[in-house]
Design brief:
The chain has about 325 residues and is mainly β. The protein contains 3 helices and 24 strands. A hairpin with a 4-residue loop joins strand 4 and strand 5. It comes from Brevibacillus antibioticus. InterPro entries: 6-blade_b-propeller_TolB-like (IPR011042). This is 6-bladed beta-propeller.
Length: about 325
């Protein structure tokens, strides 16, 4: 059986999206995907409060041409990292444009986080971190990552509620007020138990996550104030086609107590939702950003009270999982054969 790491990077890089709809910056009440509700819709453009897209038409995937990340505060404000426009766009809970924060144009920022004190953090592809307070630059950090972006996963909060930079090997790099590296330690570990089960190990507990098909990625997103663990789960069905399901699992005391399904963004065979297009808050709400041709939309994803999936008999017929011919394509160890 091929392992997580063999398909994780390949699947994560090939997302297709729907190319429909346009609108103004405003919340709307439309619901999709088992009652997921759109809570923010922003026009694409270069006007006040709008999000900039790259004009490079050869970039087929809209995600590569638009914002790379977003965050939601405890009070319901939305923060979109306008990567191409070198700005942070802030919207209030009613969808009204509230503030624009300019970023340096000599760096490419791809992730954003906000803490309980209202501090905004953005991370560049080479490990440069900027901290803003009330729209003004408060602090700068430089994380040593050997100048290779693929090492960096993004910004997260550790068990002490400190902002950290997480690498793809699940190591966290913490920062102190002196603008330098403070320490390095695992945020969590993921160990394979068998072909369909992994164990996520944090500082104080072990959580067993089971899959029906091929585990692609299991990662801790956030711990809530009630002690719940919110975990991104991705699994793949591989046959003549490819389906990768992305969801957020809610766990407490090692047991799964809920699921929020990400909205699929391609009509037939789906690929992995970009990691930074999902966001969970400290009070346990899950959100997803979808970039469309003329707008950027943010949805609140509802949690069920049980494990849930979009995988059904009709989808299984399309994928034909008994066909093993394409498995080797996703196994890096076999690519050189």
């Amino acid at each position: 059986m091929f392992s997580n790491k063999h398909i994780k990077g390949i699947i994560a890089s090939v997302l297709g999206v729907s190319l429909t709809s346009s609108g103004t910056s405003a919340p709307v009440g439309n619901k999709v995907n088992n009652h997921a509700e759109i809570v923010l819709k922003v026009d694409v453009g270069q006007g006040s409060g709008e999000i900039t897209y790259s004009s490079e038409e050869e970039l087929e995937d809209i995600e590569l041409r638009g914002p790379k990340s977003f965050a939601v505060s405890g009070s319901g404000e939305f923060f979109i990292l306008d990567t191409i426009g070198y700005q942070i766009e802030v919207y209030d809970k009613n969808g009204k444009s509230k503030q624009t924060i300019d970023l340096p144009e000599d760096k490419e920022f791809f992730d954003i986080e906000i803490n309980e004190d209202g501090n905004i953090f953005v991370l560049s592809d080479l490990g440069h971190v900027l901290q803003f307070k009330n729209g003004e630059l408060e602090n700068e950090y430089q994380v040593p990552v050997n100048q290779k972006r693929f090492e960096i996963s993004g910004l997260f909060f550790n068990k002490n509620n400190e902002i950290v930079v997480r690498l793809h090997d699940d190591t966290e790099l913490s920062l102190n007020k002196g603008k330098s590296l403070l320490k390095e330690e695992p945020t969590f570990e993921v160990k394979s138990i068998d072909d369909n089960t992994v164990e996520l190990i944090t500082a104080d507990q072990k959580i067993e996550v089971s899959y029906d098909y091929v585990p692609v990625e299991t990662a801790l997103l956030k711990s809530t104030e009630e002690g719940e663990q919110l975990i991104v789960e991705k699994e793949a069905l591989i046959g003549e086609g490819l389906y990768v399901e992305t969801r957020v699992g809610r766990y407490q005391d090692g047991e799964q107590i809920g699921t929020a399904l990400a909205i699929p963004t391609k009509d037939t065979y789906y690929t992995s939702i970009p990691f930074k297009y999902l966001y969970v808050t400290k009070d346990g709400k899950a959100y997803q950003m979808i970039t469309k041709k003329n707008s950027v939309e943010i949805y609140e994803l509802p949690f069920t009270e049980e494990k849930k999936t979009n995988i059904d008999k009709q989808l299984l017929k399309k994928i034909q999982p008994e066909d093993k011919r394409n498995v080797a394509f996703f196994d890096e160890e076999k690519l050189g054969d």
